[in-house]
């Protein structure tokens, strides 16, 4: 009886036990206000008249969910399931996105005044994935739409795909790290590349934020009910860990669930996506207004 075997300990490698929930959420969010958020996005116009569209640059490790996030935003804005950025469903370690592509979002016959740029994922080791130098060039607006990334050599002055005199609209106005909250421990080389990119953006004064994806798969309580996202002690800890590793403040980290296996829209999924989108365009707009 004294061997203590009556209270089983969670086994290493097995799925974690359901995390306890806080009685009150640690961050306020208004559920059910999807239409209000959507209206805010529909009314949005850049303050700086020289800026055609706020440019949001998405970066992160391979498989973080960058393309799925673009599709999810498009789903919410178009009010239907779409496939704007072809997302790769396989779990291999190689980046699916190979070129610097500007994603526009349709608004009737026009486009919303913000665009997303999706770049090749960051990979472990030199000569694999997008090079940090290429991302730095993209931040300054030197990378042309459709440029194919070369993991072995960076884009340089005079190359096709290099914009020598970028406009204010070519520049990146907000840098967004997309990270799978369920991913195994980040490899040191990937973390080093991410920090390097963050420092380059900081030197340029570009605002930064992070989107943590796959929150439903990370926590049983959130899987049961997405509205538990800010009550989950497990997710709060994961966000704090990410914040300390990468140096992005907690109030600039937003959890979302991307659309993946759904065939119709879900208002709670939409609320989290629109909350993240609103912060992105606001951050980017404030920066662009100073240029």
Give the integer mean of the pLDDT values.
87
H-E string: HEHEEHEHEHHHEH
Strand order of the largest sheet: 2-3-1-4-5-6
Largest sheet, strands/sense/barrel: 6 strands, mixed
Structural class per helix/strand content? alpha/beta
- Strand content of the residues, in percent? 5-15%
Report the principal-axis shape: globular
Which stretches are low in confidence, meaning pLDDT under 50 for 5 or more residues running?
1-10, 88-95
Query: Which percent bin holds the helix content?
Result: 25-40%
Q: Nearest-angstrom radius of gyration?
A: 20 Å
List its traits.
about 290 residues; alpha/beta; six-stranded mixed β-sheet; 8 helices; globular
């Amino acid at each position: 009886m004294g061997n203590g075997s009556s209270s089983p300990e969670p086994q290493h490698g097995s799925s974690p036990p359901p995390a306890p929930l806080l009685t009150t959420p640690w961050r306020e969010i208004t559920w059910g206000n999807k239409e209000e958020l959507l209206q805010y996005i529909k009314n949005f116009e850049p303050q700086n008249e020289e800026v055609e569209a706020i440019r949001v640059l998405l970066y992160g490790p391979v498989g973080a969910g960058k393309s799925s996030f673009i599709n999810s935003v498009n789903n919410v804005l178009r009010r239907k399931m779409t496939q704007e950025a072809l997302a790769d469903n396989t779990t291999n370690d190689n980046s699916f996105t190979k070129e610097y592509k500007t994603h526009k979002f349709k608004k009737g016959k026009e486009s919303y005044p913000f665009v997303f740029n999706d770049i090749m994922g960051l990979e472990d080791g030199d000569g694999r994935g997008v090079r940090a130098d290429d991302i730095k060039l993209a931040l300054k607006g030197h990378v042309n739409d459709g440029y194919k990334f070369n993991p072995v050599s960076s884009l340089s002055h005079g190359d096709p795909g290099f914009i020598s005199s970028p406009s204010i609209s070519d520049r990146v106005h907000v840098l967004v790290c997309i990270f799978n909250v369920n991913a195994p421990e980040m490899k040191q080389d990937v973390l080093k590349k991410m920090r390097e990119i963050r420092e380059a953006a900081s030197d340029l004064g570009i605002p930064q934020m992070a989107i943590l994806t796959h929150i439903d798969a990370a926590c049983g309580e959130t899987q049961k009910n997405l509205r538990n996202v800010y009550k989950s002690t497990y997710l709060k800890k994961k966000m704090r860990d990410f914040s300390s590793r990468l140096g992005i403040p907690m109030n600039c980290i937003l959890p979302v669930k991307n659309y993946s296996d759904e065939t119709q829209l879900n208002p709670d999924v939409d609320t989290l996506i629109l909350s993240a989108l609103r912060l992105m365009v606001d951050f980017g707009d404030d920066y662009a207004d100073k240029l």
